[in-house]
Design goal:
The protein is of the alpha+beta class. 37% of the residues lie in helices and 30% in strands. The chain has four helices and eight strands, in the order E-H-E-E-E-E-H-E-E-E-H-H.
């Protein structure tokens, strides 16, 4: 069963998923709006999530923003290089989603975008994507933070994730 993707539909899917704390808001210059929500990882970290149906581009975008900050002007070069290497290696291994780094302010986020041709999306597809976002961010955010803090090398993180670089 496929349902037209709207902010209201996303909120109903979140309710069905078991998430009761979310808010649909209007977006400037957009007709469909966006849903704001989030979760707490098993490690106790809070994560914000934006779910954005972009109907004119036929995509639904999940953005876990503000996973961490590594401002280029305030982050030691070796730690910043390690972070970028870790993000690149993680992206190389991923099938769904991608890690993003904003060089303007050092924000690291996880984004997953899926096509919603004809504006439709089954709950099972939504659930699959939400599970990927939550699992990826919950298990990796603290490891990326260790790289930025110089407590772990990018190579150590990538080896833990199954990408051994000799």
């Amino acid at each position: 069963m496929f349902d037209k993707v709207t902010v209201e539909r996303v909120e109903k899917y979140l309710d069905r998923y078991g998430w009761k704390r979310h808010k649909g808001i209007d977006e400037p210059n957009e007709q469909e709006g966006v849903v704001l929500t989030g979760w707490r990882s098993p490690q106790g970290e809070s994560h914000l999530l934006t779910i954005d149906p972009i109907i004119e581009k036929n995509v639904l975008v999940f953005k876990a923003g503000g996973v961490l900050k590594a401002p280029p002007n305030n982050t030691p070069a070796d730690c910043l290089n390690g972070l970028l290497m870790a993000l690149s290696g993680l992206n190389y291994m991923m099938i769904l989603g991608k890690w993003c780094f904003d060089p303007r302010d050092g924000e690291v986020r996880f984004t997953l975008a899926i096509p919603i041709d004809e504006g439709r999306l089954a709950y099972s597809e939504f659930e699959h994507c939400l599970n990927v976002v939550v699992a990826t961010v919950s298990t990796t955010a603290s490891k990326l933070k260790e790289v930025v803090e110089g407590k772990k090398s990018a190579m150590e993180l990538l080896a833990e994730e199954g990408l051994n670089i000799a």
